[in-house]
Amino acid sequence: MANMLFSGTIITNGRGKAVCTATGMSTEVGKIARLIQEVGPGPTHLQKRLAELGKFLGILTIAICIIVFVAGTLIRKEPVLEMFIVAVSLAVAAIPEGLPAVVTIGLALGVQRMVKRNALIRKLPSVETLGVTTVICSDKTGTLTKNEMTVKKIYANGKIIDVKGSGYNTKGDFLFDGKKIGPKEIGYLLTIGALNNDAQLSDGGVIGDPTEGALIVSAEKAGLVKEQLENNYKRIEEVPFSSERKLMTTIHEFNGETRAFVKGAPEVVLGLCNSIYEDGEIIKLSDEKRNEIHKTNREFADSALRVLGFAYKTVTDNESVEENLIFAGLEAMIDPPREEIKAAIEKCRNAGIKVVMITGDFELTARSIAKAVGLEGKTMTGVELDKTKDLDEIVEDVSIYARVNPEHKIKIVEALNTDFHSYRNRHNTPPITQSKQFPQIFHQATEQ
To answer: Residue 207 in contact with residue 199, Cβ under 8 Å?
Structure first.
């Protein structure tokens, strides 16, 4: 949706006026809540099995009671009323009144064991549900990844430089061809990233945009602290970022000069530049160099890195602050996977559990993260989901869903349920709990 704000969103920069168009359950968050309410909790596998057991015992008991009643009255010539009482007594005795209590105690013991493994169980049936899980659907951001943007690559002075470290830890080296380089080569690029920035680092986290937080961290890895830089480069004006311009410009006073620092989409920034800063010199930006920068940008993007371009200029009174810029370089960042995720997914795979990633991010980013954490399978986008009419027939082959919304998530889970039951019926496959290997599989699944 264009030109819309959503309840629950944190605004980190800019100014504006908004008109309320919906409240309560009519908002987008309310629609998600309604979807969850409409789905509702279905019967668990244990409840279904107990229902099947109850039905079987009921039919078997009635059959035995009829046989006893008929044999007693016709063969042994016992009184009809007496044999009727015997049959009813047999029926009452055959009903396992203690079964619910036994099941409850068993689940309670399961909860106790899970607590010892640092797992909090809110409802007793969850213990049993874990034992019959065959698919885990997981979000990406904050679940498979750390939800911490980290600069991993820098392009400056015609070199592609690797940046070590992860998250918002300000310790890390800069490497070119595997050798450590000093921050002097990329210092001005990092300075622009730190000053053209509205975020702040606080107690190991970021206040503001995570992308801008990553730029501050990369600068501090080179010893460039934002607060100290701001004392030397006093900000006097700002042209905020917008999705139409794809740029943000800040104007600073430095040693009697006025300088403009620009960051934004690489292709947009590059289009405003006619010079480039390399090895301490400002030279004309040739077509060959432009093509090299575009190629580097594509390589970073193909690795699921989010890329920003940076430029600057000394401002004069008779020209725009966003023309005839000097290109400074690129910074490419990613939300890194959690260190323990790959091993956890491998344990699930060994236990016979398939892991599916469902995310609202771009397809390229989703595939890259999936590859990093060891997920394999086909990729499907939300647009393709809307066009697919027989999702339950292909859902088994898809492991990565990108650019999806909450309605798609429910559709995927329902298709997985349908596919599981149809597979069981086609192949007459018993549930995993009936397998001789189940105790070992359950232990592996709960170990993580």
So the answer is: yes
* DSSP calls for 319-347: S-TTSSEEEEEEEEEE-PBPTTHHHHHHH
- Alpha-carbon distance 241 to 234, whole Å? 19
The verdict on whether 177 is a catalytic residue reads no
Cα–Cα distances in angstroms (integers) from residue 176 to residues 123, 153, 164, 309, in the given order: 53, 10, 11, 20
Q: Residues 139, 173, 198, 419: which is the catalytic one?
A: 139
Burial environment of residue 324 by CB neighbours within 10 A (0 to 12, 13 to 18, 19 or more) = middle
Query: What's the CATH superfamily of 134-143+339-447?
Result: HAD superfamily/HAD-like (3.40.50.1000)
Distance of CA 258 to the CA centre of its chain: 42
Q: Which amino acid does the sequence have at 205? A: G
> Per-residue pLDDT tens for 327-371?
999 999 988 888 899 999 999 999 889 999 998 877 877 888 888
Domain boundaries, given as residue ranges, for the chain: 1-40, 45-96, 134-143+339-447, 150-334
